[in-house]
Design a protein that fits this description.
Blueprint lengths: L2 H6 L7 E4 L3 H15 L5 E4 L2 H10 L6 H4 L4 E5 L2 E2 L5 E2 L6 H9 L4 E6 L12 E6 L4 H10 L3 E4 L1 E2 L2 E2 L7 E6 L6 H9 L4 E4 L1 E2 L5 E5 L6 E6 L2 E4 L10 H8 L4
Parallel strand pairs: 1-2, 1-3, 3-6, 6-14
Antiparallel strand pairs: 4-5, 5-13, 7-11, 7-12, 8-11, 9-10, 14-15, 15-16
Helix pairs in contact: 2-3
């Protein structure tokens, strides 16, 4: 079983699903499209214009957040996952919409290769921060004062423009001793729209092999389940939310 196949087991008929960005999340959207073509009734809210284009091509009906209300689950990827299931996301530049969609969901399921597991957030040395274009000089200065080393993200020689018409500062960082404090300090800078720190949002992380996404283990807050343990796809959702300390 792959992490894509396992994630599909959480999807029920009539579900409203947040559709993430990145390689694993896009593989999930393609697999979801196969299910839709075979009669599954679901609707999705994309976290990026790229994901929206893919979902339309795969035949997955789309909604806006205003139309969807609370989502049943979101399936997304991550760039770092620590032992507490806190995340760094945003290497794909969709971090603000990803966080909004995740916060609008009853459950956030994260799909990652085993290389994304880290002992401490910041291990891979990069934290994306989305900022308003007008605020770039201030944000660069204040981030430097916090010990981050901001580097404007460029594409084809120009400042990258996000789906929200903002820019990204890639902060070169060391392992983060206190992610909650760093998040608060960065968000306090006028002009910061969002950071790649996703703290306390993920409830389930499916870890797969790097090359083929074969399921290695399933992590939930307070529990790690390897692929050798029995998996019950019909396990009561409410009990999982309580176990994970999730939102009710």
């Amino acid at each position: 079983m792959t992490i894509i196949e396992r994630a599909l087991e959480f999807v029920t008929d009539g579900a409203r699903i947040g559709l993430g960005s990145g390689r694993a999340a896009q593989a999930f959207v393609k697999a979801l499209g196969d299910r839709v073509r075979n009669g599954l009734d679901v609707q999705g809210v994309p976290t990026s214009e790229e994901t929206a284009t893919l979902a339309r091509r795969e035949g997955v009906p789309l909604l806006t957040l205003a139309e969807s209300g609370i989502l049943d689950l979101t399936v997304d990827g991550a760039d770092e996952v620590d032992p507490n299931l806190d995340l760094i996301k945003g290497y794909g530049r969709a971090l603000v919409r990803e966080k909004i969609v995740a916060a609008s969901s009853r459950r956030l399921i994260i799909l990652v290769g085993e290389e994304k597991l880290v002992p401490q957030l910041g291990t891979r040395g990069r934290l994306p921060v989305e900022v308003l274009p007008f605020a770039m000089p201030l944000c660069e200065r204040r981030l430097s004062e916090l010990g981050c080393r901001p580097v404007p993200c460029r594409k084809d020689g120009r400042l990258l423009v996000t789906d929200n018409s903002n820019h990204i500062l890639d902060c070169e960082i060391d392992p983060i001793p206190n992610a909650v404090e760093l998040e608060a300090n960065i968000r306090a800078i006028p002009g910061v729209v969002g950071t790649g720190l996703f703290l306390g949002l993920a409830e389930t992380v499916l870890v797969g092999a790097k090359d083929d996404f074969q399921l290695i283990e399933e992590r939930r807050r307070g529990r790690i389940q390897s692929n050798r343990d029995p998996i019950d796809p019909h396990e009561n959702e409410q009990s999982l939310l309580i176990e994970a300390g999730g939102r009710q």
